[in-house]
Amino acid sequence: MGNKNKTISFRVSQEKFETLREIAEERDLSLSAVFRDYVDLLVAHDGQVEVVPEHEITDSTDTSDGTSFPPKVEVPKSFVREHERLELQAEHLRDQLEEHKRYVTKLRQELDTYDDGEEVIQLEDLDGEEEDDDDPSYRIGSSFDESI
């Protein structure tokens, strides 16, 4: 099952529609691209998106509870490096897994092409056909008869 795009439909006034279309034309985007970008931004920030006209944007917009928006968090470089290392390791492991799956598939295909109609002869069966009851069998590790 792949990703399927869904359609969202809503109504806006003619005036707001014209304003949105002008914004899209200014940025050389389609109107649907403006909405897709907004929805992507909304999802990426867990609904914490504030739409503000460009002339009102400042470096640190304070919200009603005194925190800045969008929230800023400093992440140590060691954390970023460790994350990148783990991503590379995960990618390497995924590659190894795919290679292993291909090898197992190849072995299964070879096994399937192997002729099942071939007769398999067990060595015990060969010994049993020619063996006389008078002739003792040879055993490794048993006591030797030195009289011979």
Structural description of this entry:
By secondary structure, the chain is mainly α. Helices cover about 50% and strands about 5% of the residues. It has 4 helices and 2 strands, in the order H-H-E-E-H-H. The protein has helices at about 15-25, 30-45, 75-115, 125-130; strands at about 60, 70. A hairpin with a 5-residue loop joins strand 1 and strand 2 (about 70).
Percent range for helical residues?
Answer: 40-55%
Read across the widest sheet, the strand sequence of neighbours is: 1-2
Instruction: Specify the overall morphology.
Output: elongated
Number of alpha- plus pi-helical segments: 4
**Largest sheet: number of strands, sense, barrel closure:** 2 strands, antiparallel
User: How far is the N terminus from the C terminus?
Assistant: 77 Å
% residues in beta strands: under 5%
Give the number of DSSP strands: 2
**Structural class label:** mainly alpha
> Could you list the spans in which at least 5 consecutive residues all have pLDDT below 50?
none
The Rg value, from CA coordinates, equals 37 Å
Q: What is the structure about, briefly put?
A:
With 148 residues, this protein is mostly helical.
